[in-house]
Amino acid sequence: MKNKVYRWLVCALFSVSLFHVHANAQNNQLGIFDGQSDIGSVKNKGGAAYDHVSQQYHLEGSGTNVWGTHDEFHLVWKKMKGDFILRAGAEFIGKGVEAHRKIGWMVRSSLDTNSKHINAVVHGDGLTSLQFRRTVGGNTEEIKSALTGANVIQLERKGNTYTMSVARKGETFVSEKLDDLDLGQEVYVGLFICSHNPAVTEKAVFDNVRIVVPAGKDMVAYKSYLGSSIEILDLSTQNSKVIYQIPNSLQAPNWTKDGKSLIYNRDGLLYNFDLATLTPKVINTGAASHNNNDHVISFDGKMLAISSSNGPKGASLGFTVPIGGGEPKQITPTGPSYMHGWSPDRKYVVFCGDRNGEYDVYRIPAGGGPEVRLTDARGLDDGPEYSPDGKYIYFNSVRSGLMQVWRMKPDGSEQTQLTHDDFNNWFPHVSPDGKWIVYITFLKDEVSPGDHPFYKHVYLRVMPANGGPSKVVAYLYGGQGTINTPSWAPDSKHLAFVSNSGLLFPVFPIGN
């Protein structure tokens, strides 16, 4: 059965790639960018190519330097206004010639060789820095990062403030900020490469390339929304591919047991998203027509536990419904109740419930009956989920100050903290093989411990199921709805998640 599921998964992802090739054949051959240019009087012409299957970019270029009063390099670019977040993984190809060959993100006022600019750059010798020219033809300045050898690069603009955040893949960001750099409202943003030797051409590859338009200050939560992208992450390479986009909100993709579909929520409805055809279809949930992003598939793949705001004053109640749809059965007597996990034997559902102003983890028979309170610590306990062997329930709790990942026995005993870091960690999901946990991390300077809002800088991190060091597997802009539900593929090697942006690119036809 495992081999059958894995073959289907490979075929589904291959179909995604074929569809992607076809879609992009009609559009820009540089992916999300508008054009490419050699900047300055380069000796060797540069070039760029977009790999539709991997969604990676390959650049080559020469040039004397990006420094001093003028620059020589190759750039793939897009013209933009307003605030944005630029992010990519970056690696040189080959040993190279010069220690100060350069790759990274560039923001320029113009394509002139002496333009004002800022760039987040990694050098061939590992030096990582924020370089900038304040005036046309002025000298380039530099802020060196404490981190060397970065291969994940992010450059963010908020007004005239620029923040460079860099990491070695798997680690969290280290940041440097520059205030009061006026490059104009409309700028050229893009990826660049410079050989630091006019006679040499260097090559580099960029993955997970994203240009994000973040939420504006006037955006009202739960009233207006950014666009949503479903991404599939290959954990072996940490390369993520966008497979579907819509210009508003969809949330919480939950991978089905047969590997053929994702189930997500949108506008109060649940959808089955076919991975072979890349098309969504509404799942009939009958009277439960106000569904939120807390839904979970039973371990045998036959049932859904869903949360729908059908209670008094719109309170969320828990229901069960067949995986293919049907009339739901209410199982929680009161709300708010948010469904999160089935027991492997399908006898119980665990959920987060608000009772008398206190949110805790509860267990209830899947057919309905008396609920049992499993946690009683002060503060929010949320996101409960059984391990595949049924020995533990994993959850997140704010009881130690910041939100952290915990686990307990199914009867609520032996409650043990598994993460102990300086972040807010939510929604632990156990891989089907029982070996790993993926969870979402919010930054404590952006988000209060008891909140998991939309549209923030977040990490997806993976750790051993019994605890241990965590590594970042995805850097993204998202939050609420990114990974609320279990979204491991059946092979325990891929993840589905949602990222957000106010600007979507035609990597696939935009959903209706």
Topology:
Blueprint: H1 2-25, E1 35-39, E2 47-51, E3 56-61, E4 66-67, E5 70-71, E6 73-81, E7 84-93, E8 102-108, E9 117-123, E10 128-133, E11 140-144, E12 152-158, E13 161-167, E14 174-178, E15 186-194, E16 202-212, E17 227-234, E18 239-246, E19 251-255, E20 261-266, E21 269-274, E22 279-283, E23 296-297, E24 303-308, E25 317-322, E26 329-330, E27 337-342, E28 348-355, E29 358-365, E30 372-373, E31 381-386, E32 393-397, E33 404-408, E34 416-417, E35 424-430, E36 436-442, E37 456-464, E38 471-478, E39 494-501
Antiparallel strand pairs: 1-6, 2-3, 3-16, 4-5, 6-15, 7-12, 7-16, 8-9, 8-15, 9-10, 10-11, 12-13, 13-14, 17-18, 17-39, 19-20, 20-21, 21-22, 23-24, 24-25, 25-26, 27-28, 28-29, 29-30, 31-32, 32-33, 33-34, 35-36, 36-37, 37-38
What does this molecule look like?
The protein has 512 residues and is mainly β. It has two domains: 35-212, Sandwich (Jelly Rolls), CATH 2.60.120.200; 230-501, Neuraminidase. Helices cover 5% and strands 46% of the residues. The chain contains one helix and 39 strands. The chain has one helix at residues 2-25, and strands at residues 35-39, 47-51, 56-61, 66-67, 70-71, 73-81, 84-93, 102-108, 117-123, 128-133, 140-144, 152-158, 161-167, 174-178, 186-194, 202-212, 227-234, 239-246, 251-255, 261-266, 269-274, 279-283, 296-297, 303-308, 317-322, 329-330, 337-342, 348-355, 358-365, 372-373, 381-386, 393-397, 404-408, 416-417, 424-430, 436-442, 456-464, 471-478, 494-501. The protein has a seven-stranded antiparallel beta sheet with strand order 1-6-15-8-9-10-11, with no helix packed on it. Strands 2-3-16-7-12-13-14 form a seven-stranded antiparallel beta sheet, with no helix packed on it. A four-stranded antiparallel beta sheet has the order 19-20-21-22, with no helix packed on it.
